[in-house]
Amino acid sequence: MYRTHTCGELRIEHVGQEVTLAGWVAAVRDFGPLTFIDLRDRYGITQLVFDMQTNPELCESARRIGREWVIQARGKVRERSNKNPNRATGDIEIEVHQLSVLNPSKIPPFTIETHTDGGEELRMKYRYLDIRRDPVKEKLLFRARLAMETRLYLSSQGFVEIETPYLIKSTPEGARDFVVPSRLHPGQFYALPQSPQTFKQILMVAGMDKYFQIVKCFRDEDLRADRQPEFTQIDCEMSFVEREDVLQTFEGLIRHLYKSLLDIELGPFPRMTYEEAMTKYGTDKPDLRFDMVIHDISEHAKGKGFQVFDSAEIVAGLCVPQRANDFTNRIIKELTAWVQRPQIGAKGLVYIKWNADDTTKSSIGKFFDDETLRSWLAHMDARPGDIAFLLAGKKGETLRQLSELRLELAHRLELIPDDTVKPVWIVDFPLLEWDEDEQRFHAMHHPFTAPRDEDLPLLDSTDHSDHLRIKANAYDLVINGAEIGGGSIRIHDRTVQMKMFRLLGFSPEEVEAQFGFLLHAFEYGAPPHGGIAFGLDRLCAIMQNQKSIRDYIAFPKNNQGRDIMIDAPAPLEPHQLEELHLCIRNNAQD
Amino acid sequence: MYRTHTCGELRIEHVGQEVTLAGWVAAVRDFGPLTFIDLRDRYGITQLVFDMQTNPELCESARRIGREWVIQARGKVRERSNKNPNRATGDIEIEVHQLSVLNPSKIPPFTIETHTDGGEELRMKYRYLDIRRDPVKEKLLFRARLAMETRLYLSSQGFVEIETPYLIKSTPEGARDFVVPSRLHPGQFYALPQSPQTFKQILMVAGMDKYFQIVKCFRDEDLRADRQPEFTQIDCEMSFVEREDVLQTFEGLIRHLYKSLLDIELGPFPRMTYEEAMTKYGTDKPDLRFDMVIHDISEHAKGKGFQVFDSAEIVAGLCVPQRANDFTNRIIKELTAWVQRPQIGAKGLVYIKWNADDTTKSSIGKFFDDETLRSWLAHMDARPGDIAFLLAGKKGETLRQLSELRLELAHRLELIPDDTVKPVWIVDFPLLEWDEDEQRFHAMHHPFTAPRDEDLPLLDSTDHSDHLRIKANAYDLVINGAEIGGGSIRIHDRTVQMKMFRLLGFSPEEVEAQFGFLLHAFEYGAPPHGGIAFGLDRLCAIMQNQKSIRDYIAFPKNNQGRDIMIDAPAPLEPHQLEELHLCIRNNAQD
Question: Which residues of A touch B38 (CB under 8 A)?
Answer without folding.
Answer: none
